[in-house]
Design brief:
Number of domains of chain B: 1
CATH topology of chain B: Trna Endonuclease, Chain: A, domain 1
Helix content of chain A: 25-40%
Radius of gyration of chain B: 14 Å
Number of strands of chain B: 5
CATH architecture of chain B: 3-Layer(aba) Sandwich
Largest sheet of chain B: 5 strands, mixed
Number of helices of chain A: 22
Oligomer: heterodimer
Largest interface: A-B, 5 and 11 residues
CATH topology of the largest domain in chain A: Rossmann fold
Largest sheet of chain A: 5 strands, parallel
Strand content of chain B: 35-45%
Strand order of the largest sheet of chain A: 11-12-15-10-16
CATH class of chain B: Alpha Beta
Strand order of the largest sheet of chain B: 1-2-3-4-5
Radius of gyration of chain A: 27 Å
CATH superfamily of the largest domain in chain A: P-loop containing nucleotide triphosphate hydrolases
Shape of chain A: elongated
Distance between the termini of chain A: 79 Å
Order of helices and strands of chain B: HEEEHEE
Structural class of chain A: alpha/beta
CATH class of the largest domain in chain A: Alpha Beta
Structural class of chain B: alpha+beta
Helix content of chain B: 25-40%
Distance between the termini of chain B: 31 Å
Number of domains of chain A: 3
Number of strands of chain A: 16
Number of helices of chain B: 2
Amino acid sequence: MPLARTASVGLVGLQGHVVEIEADLSGGIPNFTMIGLPDASVREARDRIRAAIINSRQKWPQRRITVNLSPATLPKRGSGFDLALAVAVLAGARVVAAPASEDTVLLGELGLDGSVRPLRGILPSVLAAQEAGRIQVIVPADNVAEACLVPKMDVLGVACLADLIAYLGGEECRVLTGAAPAELPPPPGHDLRDIVGQAQGRRALEVAAAGGHHLYLHGPPGAGKTMLAERLTGILPRLADDEALEVTAIHSVAGVLPPGSPFVRRPPYESPHHTSSTASIVGGGSGVARPGAISRAHRGVLFLDEAPEFATGVLDALRQPLESGHVTLHRSGGRTRYPAAFQLVLAANPCPCASPAGDQACVCSSWTRRRYLARLSGPLLDRVDLHVTLLPVTRQALLGDASAESTAEVSLRVRGARAAAEERLAMDGLRRNADIPGPALRRRWRLARSTMTGVEAALDRGALSARGVDRVLRVAWTLADLAGAAVPGRAEVDEAIGMRLRGLSV
Amino acid sequence: MRAKDAIGQYGERVAVRHLQQAGWTVLDRNWRCPEGELDIVATDGAVLAICEVKTRSTDAFGDPCQAVNWRKARRIRQLAARWLATNEDCWAEVRFDVISVLRQPSGAALVRHLEGAF
């Protein structure tokens, strides 16, 4: 029977589904029909695989070819089915023996010359194949390292269709097998030593890194807001294995993985320009939504420089992912959910004129100043734990003998604090103080009444919201971890209140 | 006679010989009516086959039978109905075949008989 079956994987967002591809070659006027809900980009595969097969020195079967992609209810898109389609057609024509579709999944885009081109989203595809019980994947040669991130999977890489035909014919030598990729050394460049003065800013940055807290930097231009934010990822600890796999999968779907070393082990850093659209920040696009900056910054830092210049809709769209750690996007092609547990860093000038001399030299009216900062909505700022006002750099700090702490020294303390927090929170499956749920803060991790006097006073004044209290307590725990204390004392709680209210009082 | 017509007639002769060698009886050749022409009408006793013959001297532009598109197929169906209306005999099964003839630089032509092509 001239029927052949192969398997591939279709992605909807980060979720992969195994797609069975059947090719039936029957008599009749030669033509090629593809059924099973392929979109335009999958239909184009017809012309690609035809040219690729002919240019791999094989004959295109002059038969009536019907290809079915199942499950037919799943919309299929993209060029990743090319390789599986070509092998199904060749196997139907009895040129090669197709690998068993219950065991092997084929992924890859074909060029007209028969070369196998790399794809986006290899990691989530291979994970989905493994979940569906497949034991072998055949991927483009350039994607072998990425596919090898999935443990206990037999990965084969092919550079061109002719090599795959030879391999399926029994020649072992022309396929690549690979090992999980080596880790790149952290990129040189930003070091905390470069920052002059700004003890408050440094302290806030360290606390933010240690507890995973959101940070709002407020101050005149040239004070070092951007420099501080750029150095945050440097002092963050490396990603844990499961986090790294999550982040790599998102970056793979977004197509931003570096080709040489596809495993993301360092927290990512995203700093979109303030003209960015809502869709580019939270994710979007037609058909099925693609991940935006907040998802690319998952387990890393999202830095919004000149935050008041962002469209208010963009900023307010961050509120829900900030709370839940993920974003769900509905489009015509289906619903996708991307993780978006990012650490938010906002930077703002105090006013539009932004005199480097500070507020004394400001020429803006009080109304202009108010309106400028009011663009950062209350509910958004309420979700930010640390508010820091930076002062202009003093002459002495800038021109004097500056011997500031380096990234290496600070990250050592951050790692210590994180280790303490992880040990304490291990029972709840949490890693960072910023992730402790509110009820747990008030029951299990309840602090003594005597240490809470500052919080009570702030609540009475109306300076803190109920959510604000939770956030102050989380920061207090981080301060205790940094100080090596088992439980936050009054000093830590008061410092946490100070870090929260300092910016708001301006 | 133009070259393409000569190639066409050559192909039809090859096709007829192919059918006869396979034990078919050719009932009609180049049957014409105002709507057009049927190349070959043949039978093996039970089945009536309306055959369209396509001939090419190279496959550089694809297999000869790929020249039979849906428009041509529709016209052949209409012609077949007219042919059946002018004939007394009844057939249990009527089938539309395409015979593709690829002329070789030397030696016998390559014949492919697509049974039930449309």
